[in-house]
Amino acid sequence: EKVGPMMTANLAMNAIWIPMFCAEYQVPSLAVIWAMLGTSTAVWQQVGAPSGPAGSIGEWLAVRPFTSMYTSWLAVACTVATASALTKRDRPFDKFLGAEPSTWAKAIVPAVAAITITLGAVRNDATMPAVAAWALFAIGIKQRQDKTYPGDASVASLATTAGYVCSAAAAAVLGMTLYRGDAWVFDASASG
User: Fold this and answer.
1) How far, in Å, CA of 191 to CA of 186, rounded?
2) How many of the other CB atoms lie within 10 Å of CB of 12?
């Protein structure tokens, strides 16, 4: 009930963001996707962020992975869109604050890994670092294929390494969550 207006706003912003991003309106599309992340995070906090065990496997499977996945995807998309704006030649952010595009990418990649690993560990949510790993591997592959800018090989290596770190974190969070029984609760006293 409380999340309905936030999700409606999020979906409306999504409809606006897609054409803006495709038309390469860098600054407005960045503002919209960051606002989408804000509304998605608010929804995730209310309905999907694990703060304790789910009541059942059904609740865990129906709500948590999907709200986490969408919020995680938006977090990565915000980062990639920001990095893209900062690294494109002849764009509003070209050499922003005197830094080369690859320098911005090298700063943003570890930040994404650290944020998603921290959120995953704090919230017992393996989806966050898993989605980040997927995105970071994709960035690494793309940077290896795209030879447009000098220094991309180091960005590709950094993104791939961060992807492995996020994968290990996702596996660790999932393992600890399952080991402790934090994923869902079976009330043995109710069945007997």
Assistant:
1) 9
2) 13
